């Protein structure tokens, strides 16, 4: 029953947005610059902005997240340190994204002087999704059978060999899941990027350009009553991107699993 | 000649003592059977020799020597290259058959592709598995049957060209035919290697071992020629265990 209701709600939301937004979609909408604050033209700058901010966030968050998880599972033995870090990561995951936005604005934008930029936005999102990646990677690494490690050790593998050649490859599907969840959060995030990546409508040319992500663009269009049809169009694109990311990632994962297990 | 010398070895897991003052030797090119009921310290003995207990944060006292050299003076990689360990349940690493066998050699040396191919083929032949997997080297190792997987594990250990091969109940999950194949492999390889065979199956020790050691509750009760252990053991406990009175 509950499952059916959940699925129905999901479909209702998607269908509703698509119904209002699909009419807006066209090649021009996807490939043209935004004109007149969003009343006219397309959303290419925002698509690119979203892409760049997300890529920066993932490039920064993945090594930190995976590295922390490896440290937690492989190098601490229960212990206070591990509990403190896990607790910290859990708290971080529960902090509302607007707080991250504020933190990013004060720290990255002002203190570090990065300004409203792709880099500031990416760094803020990275901080926000690191806990997700730590948690999922931790679980993935823990689920690697102990015997795999013993085999590697018994063949003379060192700890690092074992982690790099046995543990991480085996845990890869789980780690990817974490990264995908992270991408999903980053793509859809509004509050954390509005203060940090800015809301410029130009096409970003470097990591220091200010940019406007799709979610922010959608928020501004709707909030300021600029153009509801364009807002629905943007929402449709956003949803399609998130669905596509998930779909492609799951396909890759299944392919990977089928090949190696 | 003594290959492995064990002197006054005790092994502690937190508060529990798994080995109690064990002193014994393993001779070169023999198959030493190690028998005893569950929790008698058989596997702990192997983990002590391979220093695998270290990853369990266990503590060891006493000395173990390989060819007269203290194992704690050898580098851990060198020790584990020279001493192979085969576990009770065959565990294949994710990946192809080829990758499983080449994993160990690749850890230690940079090897050319041709040499690696040779090592893989020879290891599989030595483990009596080559004929069955000749055309499947690029298949996932998990597609093999249980008996084949265990022989793959043996091949994987052989690929390291070890001096001592320790087996921890290698046939516990296998059918009689697979068991026979593994025993045959051991007898074939005896000329080149030294075996320590831990087994729950006393008959298996009787079939293949030159000498047999009987463990009980972490203590070495008796070690002697297999014939003697199975016909006229000097300790009453050994006799009772072999005749199935406990364990």
From TrEMBL, chain A:
InterPro entries: MetI-like (IPR000515), MetI-like_sf (IPR035906), Phosphate_PstA (IPR005672). GO terms for biological process: phosphate ion transmembrane transport. SUPFAM superfamilies: MetI-like (SSF161098). Its main location: membrane. It comes from the Bacteria. It is a multi-pass membrane protein. Pfam families: BPD_transp_1 (PF00528). Keywords: Cell membrane, Membrane, Transmembrane, Transmembrane helix, Transport. The keyword Cell wall biogenesis/degradation does not apply. Residues 47-249 form the ABC transmembrane type-1 domain. The chain crosses the membrane at residues 43-72, 84-110, 231-253. Signal peptide: none annotated. It is found in: Cell membrane. One of its GO terms (cellular component) is plasma membrane. GO terms for molecular function: phosphate transmembrane transporter activity. Belongs to the binding-protein-dependent transport system permease family. CysTW subfamily. This is Phosphate transport system permease protein PstA.
Automatic annotation (TrEMBL), chain B:
Residues 28-219 form the AAA+ ATPase domain. It comes from candidate division WOR_3 bacterium SM23_60. GO terms for cellular component: membrane. InterPro entries: AAA+_ATPase, ABC_transporter-like_ATP-bd, ABC_transporter-like_CS, P-loop_NTPase, PstB-like. The keyword Transport applies. PANTHER family: ABC TRANSPORTER I FAMILY MEMBER 17. This is Phosphate ABC transporter ATP-binding protein. One of its GO terms (molecular function) is phosphate transmembrane transporter activity. Pfam families: ABC_tran. Keywords: ATP-binding, Nucleotide-binding, Transport. GO terms for biological process: phosphate ion transmembrane transport. Transmembrane segments: none annotated. The gene is pstB.
């Amino acid at each position: 029953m509950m499952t059916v209701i959940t699925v129905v709600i999901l479909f209702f939301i998607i269908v509703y947005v698509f119904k209002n937004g699909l009419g807006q979609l066209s090649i021009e909408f996807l490939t043209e610059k935004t004109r007149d604050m969003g009343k006219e033209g397309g959303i290419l700058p925002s698509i690119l902005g979203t892409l760049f901010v997300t890529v920066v966030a993932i490039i920064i968050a993945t090594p930190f997240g995976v590295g922390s998880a490896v440290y937690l599972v492989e190098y601490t033995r229960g212990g206070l340190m591990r509990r403190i870090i896990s607790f910290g990561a859990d708290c971080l995951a529960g902090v509302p994204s607007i707080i991250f936005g504020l933190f990013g604005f004060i720290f990255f934008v002002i203190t570090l002087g990065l300004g409203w930029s792709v880099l500031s936005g990416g760094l803020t999102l990275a901080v926000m999704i690191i806990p997700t990646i730590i948690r999922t990677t931790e679980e993935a690494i823990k689920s690697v059978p102990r015997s795999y490690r013993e085999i590697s050790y018994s063949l003379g593998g060192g700890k690092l060999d074992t982690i790099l050649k046995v543990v991480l490859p085996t845990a890869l599907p789980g780690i990817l899941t974490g990264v995908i969840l992270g991408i999903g959060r980053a793509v859809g995030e509004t509050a954390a990027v509005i203060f940090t990546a800015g809301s410029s409508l130009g096409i970003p040319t470097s990591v220091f350009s200010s940019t406007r992500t799709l979610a922010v663009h959608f928020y501004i269009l709707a909030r300021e009553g600029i153009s509801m049809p364009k807002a629905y169009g943007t929402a449709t694109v956003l949803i399609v991107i998130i669905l596509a990311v998930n779909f492609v990632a799951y396909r890759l994962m299944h392919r990977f699993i089928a090949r190696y297990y | 000649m003594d290959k492995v010398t064990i002197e006054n070895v005790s092994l502690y897991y937190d508060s529990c003592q798994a080995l109690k003052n064990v002193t014994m030797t393993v001779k070169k090119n023999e198959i030493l059977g190690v028998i005893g009921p569950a929790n008698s310290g058989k596997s702990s003995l192997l983990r002590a020799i391979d220093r695998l207990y270290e990853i369990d944060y266990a503590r060891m006292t006493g000395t173990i020597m390989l060819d007269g050299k203290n194992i704690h003076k050898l580098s851990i990689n060198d020790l584990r290259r020279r001493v192979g360990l085969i576990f009770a349940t065959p565990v294949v690493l994710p990946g192809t058959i080829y990758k499983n066998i080449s994993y160990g050699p690749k850890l230690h040396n940079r090897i050319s592709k041709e040499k690696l191919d040779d090592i893989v083929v020879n290891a599989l032949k030595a483990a009596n598995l080559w004929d069955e997997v000749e055309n499947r080297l690029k298949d996932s190792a998990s597609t093999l049957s249980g008996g084949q997987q265990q022989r793959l594990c043996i091949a994987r250990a052989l690929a390291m060209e070890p001096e001592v091969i320790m087996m921890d109940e290698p046939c516990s999950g296998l059918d009689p035919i697979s068991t026979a194949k593994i025993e045959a492999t051991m007898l074939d390889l005896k000329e080149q290697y030294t075996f320590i065979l831990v087994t729950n199956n006393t008959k298996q020790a009787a079939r293949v071992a030159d000498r047999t050691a009987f463990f009980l509750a972490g203590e070495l009760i008796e070690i002697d020629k297999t014939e003697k252990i199975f016909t006229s053991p000097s300790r009453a406990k050994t006799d009772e265990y072999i005749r199935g009175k406990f364990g």
